[in-house]
Amino acid sequence: MTSCGRRGGAMSRATLMQKVAKIAFILLTVAMLFLLFSNDFGLVDIHKASIVVAVGVDVTESGYEVTAQAAVPTPAQGEGSAAYTQVTGEGVTVAEAVDDINAKTGFYPKLAFCNLVILGENCKDSGLFTVLDYFYRNDYVPLTALVAMCRGSAKELLGQKPADGGMSSSAIQRAMSEELKNSANASTINLKLLAQDANSPSASAYMPFIESSQDGSGGATTASSGGSSGRSSGSSGGRAKSGGNSAEFTCLTTAAFTGGAFVGILDEDMAFALNLLRSEIRLAVVNCVYDGENYTVGLKNNSSEMRMEAEAGAPVLKIKYRALANVQAAESRPAAEGSANSHLVKDGVLQSVADTIESRMSSLMDFCVQNGCDLVGVKKMLCQRRYNDYLAFKDTALSVLKVKYDIKIESVR
User: Residue 175 and residue 217: Cα distance in Å, rounded?
Assistant: First the structure.
């Protein structure tokens, strides 16, 4: 082939590529124009765009009341639009109450993004898994959703105004965060772990108990709530107000269940002990008194171990706990006035901290024995490691249990 032929072929290919590029550019332009003129120009339809992020369940005389808190995407320029809304449905079962929300609002909450399930205090008189049955059967509900019980009504709790101006469910989740769990201040648990505990040989479970208080600082948001009517509003809620009380949420106490039945509330000290034994704690804070003075001590490198043994024909639970301590606050010796070794903790303070922790663990074990609630997993450990003893003591393990503590706190160096 001559050089002129090769040049002609190259020119033909270049011309073809130019035509293809022009066609592709035209098609891309048409597609972009279609997307531009087919959008909703910032209009938000709650029926299509709302995302249910939290659900509250209350028991009523006629069945159940389910409250769903939904986040509603809003355009940046829509300052008057709601950031969230709250809708309520009623029914003989939780499933029927959810369907009632569909009938009243026109959208069916699939709960695929639901991160929080709250049980009202009146749910304690019903079986735990009777109330939660819908959430385990529904294919859309993630088992990683956090679950908790609250004081009073779940509907009223979700309707309260947090101080940061956001959704109450977000503020509640912060009170149950991993950070608080890792500091032994919250007994955080999700649907999956709750079911695992309740269906283990110990047949006991726990969840955070939410309480709220009004601080009167104002500046919060108001959720648009459907109340008992179940109506939803996407334009009036979520606007900042200059006055009114805002709510603060805490989860320092813990609700306990055995066999699906509510048995009581662990106070802050017992809940702290439970978290030390059941969670991986990074930093815990303990207040103690030594020689008539108050000390606040931080505990790092926390390590807890529970082991079941048998002595004199009875099950024995041996609890071993280790931690490194540093004084975070002391009445008599401010760090700025101390020596180079002011970070070292006195032996007497270390022993006082150890005694405080043992006292809290002992209170937790007394609660478990009195209520037949095996929160620490005694029967589970017997079943896994000493099956013959489990068969012998599965009905009386807690009542005949002996507990031995080995708690040692050392000062940081």
Answer: 19
**159: nearest Cα among 102, 85, 95, 99:** 85
In a shared domain, residues 373 and 400? yes
The amino acid at residue 39 is N
DSSP letters, 201-238, are TT-EEEEEEEEEEE------B--EE-GGGT---SSSTT
Closest CA to 377 of 280, 308, 321: 308
DSSP 80: T
Claim to verify: residue 65 and residue 191 sit in the same structural domain: yes
In contact, 244 and 218? CB cutoff 8 Å: yes
Contact of 256 with 367, CB cutoff 8 Å: yes
With respect to residue 283, please indicate whether it lies within any of the assigned structural domains: yes
pLDDT in tens, the chain (413 residues): 555 555 555 567 677 777 878 888 888 888 877 766 665 544 445 555 568 899 999 999 999 999 999 887 665 544 444 467 889 999 999 999 999 988 887 777 778 889 999 999 999 999 999 999 999 998 889 999 999 999 999 999 999 988 877 889 999 999 999 889 999 999 999 999 999 999 999 999 999 999 998 875 443 333 433 433 333 333 333 433 434 578 899 999 999 999 999 999 999 999 999 999 999 999 999 999 998 899 999 999 999 999 999 888 889 999 999 999 998 888 766 654 555 566 688 899 999 999 999 999 999 999 999 999 999 999 999 999 999 999 999 899 999 999 999 999 999 87
Four-residue CA torsion sign, 182, 167, 144, 187: positive
Tally the C-alpha atoms within 13 A of residue 36's C-alpha that lie toward its C-beta.
6
Domain that includes residue 294, residue range:
279-411
User: Alpha-carbon dihedral of residues 325, 329, 334, 335, nearest 10 degrees?
Assistant: 40
Tell whether 305 and 248 lie within a shared domain.
no
Q: How many domains does the chain have?
A: 2
Distance CA 402, CA 392 (A): 15
Residues 254 and 327 reside in one and the same domain: no
Say how many Å lie between the first and final Cα of the chain, rounded. Answer: 86
- Identify whether the C-beta of residue 114 lies closer than 8 Å to the C-beta of residue 57: no
In a domain, 2, yes or no: no
165: tokens are 């101006």
Show which of 263, 294, 329 is a domain's final residue.
263
Q: Which two tokens stand for residue 396?
A: 């009386």
Task: Tell me how far apart the alpha carbons of residues 212 and 268 are, in angstroms, rounded to a whole number.
Answer: 15
Secondary structure letter of residue 345 according to DSSP: P
Q: Is residue 249 part of a domain?
A: yes
